[in-house]
Amino acid sequence: MTDMTAETNQTAPVLRAQHGPTLVLTINAPKLRNALSPEVYDGVLAGLAHAAATPGIANVVLEGAQGFFCAGGDLNALATRAALPLEERAERIEMLHEVVRRIRSAPKPVIAAIEGGAAGAGASIALAADLIVAAGDSYLSIAYVKAGLVPDGGATASLLRALPPQFAAEMALLGGRIPAQRLADLGVVNRVAPPGEALRLALQLGAELAQGSVAAQSAILGLLDSAADLSFDDQLEREKQAMAAALGSADAAEGIAAFRERRQPDFPQYAAPGVSSRK
C-alpha cells in the first residue's frame, strides 16, 4: 500500500490510500456511522479528482471506516434544516448531488465496497458507483419515508435503472433493509464477500480491471450511461463514433496485436484519460 501523505491523517473526513492500481477513499466518521457532511463531500470530490488526474491510478474504491459504509445524512443536522429558507435547503442537497454526479461521470471505474450497511444518501452514493462489492451480512436501505422524507442523491433514478419498478417502489415506500445477497440475486451487487472482506474483494476486482485499457473502460462507461436515455438509433450513433475513435488508438493497436499473437495485451499502465469525465 502506498500512503498518500496528509490524506491518511486518521482524523481527516475522507482518508486516501493507494493499493496498487486502486485508490481507496474511506469515509471517516465512524462515531456517526460515516454520516455525510460538507467535509465528507469535499474529501470525496478531491479524491475523485486526484484519481482522474493521476496516471498511476486505474480505478477507485469507496468504503466507510470501521465496518459501516455510510448512514447517509445526519438526522440531527437534518432536523435543523426546517429553519432555513427553501433555497438554502436546496443548496445543501445540491452538495450531495454534485458528489453523485462526479461518481457517475468519473473517467475511471468506481467500486463501492459495503460493510455493515448503506442507508439513505449512503445508499444513493453506493448505487452511483459502477460496481458494488458487499459483505454478505450487509444491506442497502432507502428509508427516507420512515423520517417523513423523500429520496435524494439520485436514489429513485438509480433504483429504476437497476431494478423492476415494483421492487424499487417497495424499497422506497417501505424503507426496509434489503440484504446484499438479495440485491446480488437481482444483479445490483456484483460480488458478495465474506463479512469483513468487502475491501479485499473490491481490491481484487480493481486489480482485474487494471489489466484492461483504461481509455476503453472510460468510453464504455460513457456508453452505458447514455444507453438508458437515448433512443436506439442515437445510441447506435454514439457507439459508432466511440468505436471509430477507439480503432485509431494505441490501445486498440496493442489489443488487436496481442489477440493475433495469442498473448496478453500490454496496455499503458493506468494512463489517465485526456478528459476529466466520461460524458
TrEMBL record:
Q: Name one Pfam family in it.
A: ECH_1
Question: InterPro entries recorded for this chain?
Answer: ClpP/crotonase-like_dom_sf, Enoyl-CoA_hyd/isom_CS, Enoyl-CoA_hydra/iso, Enoyl-CoA_hydra_C
Listed GO MF terms: catalytic activity
Residues spanning the signal sequence:
none
Output the Gene3D superfamilies linked to this UniProt entry. 2-enoyl-CoA Hydratase, Chain A, domain 1, Lyase 2-enoyl-coa Hydratase, Chain A, domain 2
| CDD domains found in the cross-reference section | crotonase-like
Q: Which NCBIfam families match?
A: oxepin_alt, PRK07511.1
Q: Which family does it belong to?
A: Belongs to the enoyl-CoA hydratase/isomerase family.
What's the name of the protein? Enoyl-CoA hydratase/carnithine racemase
Q: Which organism is it from?
A: Paracoccus isoporae
